Amino acid sequence: MKIIVCVKQVPDTETRIRINPEGNGIVDQDVNWVVSPYDEFAIEEALRIKEAKGGEVVLVSLGPDRAQTALRNGLAMGADSAVHLKDAAFDAADTMGVAKALAAAIKGIGGADLVLTGQQGVGGDHSQVPGLLAGLLDLPQVTMAIKIELGEGKATVTREIEGASEVWETALPAVISAQKGLNEPRYASLKGIMAAKKKAIDVKDAAALGLAAADLAPLTTVASLELPPARPAVRMIDGDPETQARELLRLLHEEAKVI
Amino acid sequence: MAERDVLETDVLVVGGGPAGLAAAIRFKDLLDAHNAKNGGSKLEASVMVVEKAAEFGAHNLSGAVLDPVSLQELCPDFDAKNAPVSTRVTGDRVYFLTENRSFRLPIVPPPLQNHGNRIISLNQLVKWLAGEAEKRGIDLLAGFPGAEVLYEGDRVVGVRTGDKGIDKHGNKKGNFEAGVDVRAKITILAEGARGSLTKSLVPRLGLDKGRHPQVYSIGIKELWEVPKGTLPRGEVIHTAGFPLEEDTFGGGFIYGFTDTLVSIGLVVGLDYKDPLLDPHGLFQRMKQHPLVKPLLEKGTMVRYGARTIGEGGWYSIPRPYADGVMLIGEAAGYLNPARLKGVHLALKTGMQAAETALEALIADDTSAAKLKAFDDRVRSSYVKDELWKTRNFHAAFKNGLWFALPQLGLQEITGGHGLEDPLEPSAGYAEMQTLARYWGGGLGKDSFERPKADGKLTFDRLTDVYNSGTKHDEDQPAHLHVADPNICETRCKEEFGNPCERFCPAAVYEMVPKGDDPKQERLQINFSNCVHCKTCDVMDPYQIITWVTPEGGGGPRYDDL
């Protein structure tokens, strides 16, 4: 079984984000880049399927040079090989451009029995690439997977919905996107990291994927980006329990106006 | 349970700071040179560096003014290779501060003259060194703390890395990953000040026999972004006096790191007497001094960190070798307390250990007798020269600043001898006096009140911790072991007023109400705040706190510090 996992490198959620002077992106400097946590669930699931059923796990990531670190992490966890999509032409690409590049790469390596992604990339949070990818590859899609069971040529996927879960069956190949709860990703072991150093990463540019500048022209652009407003300071209420309760009630009623 | 993985390497370096990376780089360079010369009999040897931080440099913090002497030896073309050491010292000033005034010393004492040196961020330098090591094909493994030394008898045969995936109750999680036994012919401990493996190894092998106890200071640092023109790039300011009482060792530093970044910090000797002393609070007061405040008030604090410093000097350095092991850098105590510098000695001793390691591997003899050559190298180099001249520096402060000054003058003239040689320091924690003794009767821990931070110039601990980028997975056992928490609730509260709440610069230790009786308190350990400075391990008056390595990758994430 050949499983392709799409991996995005994103800023660590602990990073203190600074907006660039143009106001349409973030400052790259001093950012700690990690594998998007949802993509880690996807990698882990792929490895578990491989361990249970045999096969191979191929990672694909689009990004600048630093994206190789994310691929190395996945290889250290146990993936077999990796493809790095790198081209200055990708810099301006929006989610559609990224999906086109990923789809071309997946076709280029002969397709897969299963394509796994995270349900969203932490940071941009669009949740668009999995759907676009399924469309471009003309494959069925199940999102928000918290459990995947593989059968002959099909998969039974439990997906999370608001306050409940539902079970879908899909033919394979399919694009399935991973939600938190699917599994607990493993740590890259010391041996895995040593072994990953010897695994090759195949680098492909836009031309190698058969994509021209027009294919990658963004359909959407970021007009502006703002940091969330600073949270107001915590207010401590003094006094004995009764006074505190009365004051809290008064504040909720008169200031917060929630009751 | 799955079998524990075993990895073999020839040289294992524990700790990827300046000493450890210098050792690895030097070893690889010498090995390549050796093999280029001896085409017929090539030596195959691998070198590996394990580091507890998630990435190299993330746990490294220093002032810092670098004497580039040893960097020059390690990488002669370091400027051409864009080593991040481009800020040359342009001016030296030393002040004595009283609460509201400052007195500039007419001459800069010789150890503090920094002409030719560079103002650096140690964490930037370490990242650069890691890049150099990577280019040489050295195995760098970040996120893997050395948790335990592996012995065969008294011979060190490697290190076991920490387990990952253990929950807060000590149970294995679904993603449990057992630590690996990394077995090495030579293990080089380069953990920095108060390394947890070094701390257990030195007494076990008796390496401290006949040596003085190590004495430490805590260094607390902030990085400030200020408008251009506030402090010239390259300007070095050192202060003595305020906010420290004359019975407390230490002083302040303010460096013009770039045109718009100022490095500022306070060093406080961890042999202070006042149990109510609060190093982090004193640092906040330092920033309010009329000499300092104008440098910061138009700026923003951007980073924070803290680390202990081994200040004991020459007499406190243990025997730095045994069968299969060498101790380098600050793990051993190679730091010049008078010059406030250790980075150049860390690099140098790392290189000296590497030279010794290669010789030993070629001779296929890694016994203590062979590794003694490391100590010989140290003793016949400038490492000993400068440490010998300052061998009684810290001990001279035993009776306070005013007694120290004439002694230091005499030491300067007599090549370090002074009035008495050796002056024996005590273990720092033993200097702390009880509340009753220091303050007389009547004062308890409640008598201590910290001024409120304004959030602009002064900060509380939690704000500062946030700016250290510190993070630990909360679902793991606390990595700060308190042997007997009963002592905290009873004796320590009474005798010392729980000084851990004040000496920890990261708000890890907190006495919280126990049950309904407001007078009863218990110790709560907020281990996820820990910036890995090791102050608690050093200064706890009962010596019941042990700092062990948390899950790999946890800890601060220093940038530009």
Q: Which chain pair has the greatest contact?
A: A-B, 14 and 21 residues
The structural class of chain A is: alpha/beta
Using only CA atoms, what is the Rg of chain A? 22 Å
Measured as a percent range, the helix fraction of chain A is 25-40%
Major beta sheet summary of chain A: 9 strands, mixed
In the predicted model, the low-confidence regions of chain A spanning at least 5 consecutive residues are: none
Number of helices of chain A: 7
Describe this structure in words.
The complex is a heterodimer of chains A (259) and B (561). Chain A is of the alpha/beta class and 259 residues long. Chain A folds into two domains: 215 residues, Rossmann fold (3-Layer(aba) Sandwich); 30 residues, no CATH class. Helix content of chain A is 30%, strand content 24%. Chain A is built from seven helices and eleven strands. A nine-stranded mixed β-sheet of chain A has the order 9-8-7-10-6-1-4-5-11, with helices on both faces. In chain A, helix 2 crosses helix 5. Chain B has 561 residues and is α+β, with helices and mostly antiparallel strands. Helices cover 27% and strands 23% of the residues of chain B. In chain B, strands 1, 2, 8, 9, 10, 13, 19 and 20 form an eight-stranded mixed β-sheet that branches. In chain B, helix 1 runs parallel beside helix 3 and helix 8 runs antiparallel to helix 9. Chain B is globular and about 75 Å long. The two termini of chain B are 41 Å apart. The mean pLDDT of chain B is 94. At the A-B interface, helix 5 of A face strand 12 of B.
